[in-house]
Give the backbone structure.
Amino acid sequence: MSMRPVGLPEIPEQTVVVARAAFPRGSLAIRVRDHLAEVFVGEPFAEAFGVRGAPGLPPGVLSLVTVLQFAEDLTDRQAAAMAVRAIDWKYALGAELTDTGFDASVLSKFRARLADNGMERVVFDRLLEHCKDAGLVAAGGKQRTDSTHVISAVRDLNRLELAGESVRAALEALAVAAPLWLAGQIDVTEFAQRYWPRVDGRRMPPSQTKRDRLAQVFGQDALALCRAAWADDAPVWIRQIEAVHLLRQVLVQTCIIRSDSRGRQVIKKRDADDGVPPGQLRLTSPYDADARWAAKGDDPFWMGYKIHLTETCSTLPDADADADADADADAVAGAEAAAGVMPNLITDVHTTDATVPDVKATTPIQRKLVAHGVKPTEHYLDSGYPSADLVTKALKQGIRMVTPILLDRSAQAKAAEGFDKNAFTVNWKTRQVRCPAGKTSSHWNPVKQHGTDAIVITFSVLTCRECPFQKQCTTSQIGRRMLTLRPKELHENLARARAEQKTDTWKNKYALRAGVEGTINQALDVTGIRRARYRGLPKVRLQHAFSATALNVIRLDAHWTTGPLDRTRHSQLERLNYRLSA
């Protein structure tokens, strides 16, 4: 397929007349075409398409269809049908009223091209740049971030189901790619009888002994396939088939090979005592190599991914602005922006596998905000995102993280008895610490803990043993107090943040973060963002980028049509009072 680097087609005159008559007040699709046509162009997608072959639909058109699809939470077939029967969609796409549209598979191929070429965020970034030029988003101000879990598009499998289904997936792939080679390696009749239905725990024997035997059979079949695929006389491309490659990983993950008393190799199910891979490496399905099991707080376990949404949550300073009566919609939006009427727009969407903790996402999110020229002055986050190092690093970049810092985790602080770290005075020049009893520390040892710099402070046993406050200070069997501090700058930032977050002023300010929960709920209701539509991290990232783009389009449409949001809930009696007083 070839591509011409063109924008959206010109709207046919007849389509304009009919669309304006059918939608005198406009619609989302019509306003997107009128205001955002420059966002949906073909040049950014040039590297993903060839220059030879039959010309296909312009990428700008397909990207607009995808955004409208997510804005209305449609399947590919439904989106393709809307492109044929919906007049406002024909207007947006610049299509004739008699246009017969396109096959639904075109959308799937378009997404695959974007994911394969790392273009998941192209449309989102172009819309963000357009909003910057229109004055709707800018560097400075306040932004807030939160995350939620995303359930994968494949079914949950326990370890026994995973072992069997991985063999089945490899057999199905080999039956298509190398049927003759496969027939020469296995007893096709036996394997077909065992693996023709999908492996389901509900059809497995209830006896634990029989289930252990079944696990052994799955392991033996997987081992036989892997040995055949990695044999010297096997074609190299056989082991490069994704299902075969994943089978080898699952075999190592779920089974272990040992020698029995006779010296024979015996394969058995791998138990926890035998060692299992860490969560971030542990495969959960042969059909999605990127999905992972995880849990967050008291929530149940889920298999899949995690998404982080960042949005603006402030308005620009008030300024005088006049709009000409004949000005276009962009000028009106600019005048409203200058007047301080600003929609809350998503500025970043960050997707990871489910095992990545929130604290690991802080730096990538802030780095992207800086790169796109929308760096906030204040960044509101929950307690999962900060650390002493991240807070200090962000401050140096001009970003103040408004977030609860985890409190002192020492036994004294947890019990609210005795002397916690705040009771000790640190002299950074002399590298000594003075305790509440007036005694000074004997050792100051800079160390590395979990890859970060720390300082271990030790008081002398002789000093602590004679102290009348020893029981309030330490429960150590040796009888001396030890403290672990961060370097000076980090320690002071932590102490300052912990003291500040106890004040009512800080608590009232931090209440602004709660609004991002509504954004996640809107993303869930409008685009179904909590359930992955596709398999694999690249395509899930693409789904989330288009979901965020669709949410921004919906919010921009509300900004264009209804003006500033009235956040006050009026009762019916109050509405009647307004009408009577008018």
Remarks:
- The CA atoms of residues 204 and 246 lie 23 Å apart.
- Confidence is low (pLDDT under 50) at residues 315-340.
- The radius of gyration is 30 Å.
- The longest strand covers residues 302-312.
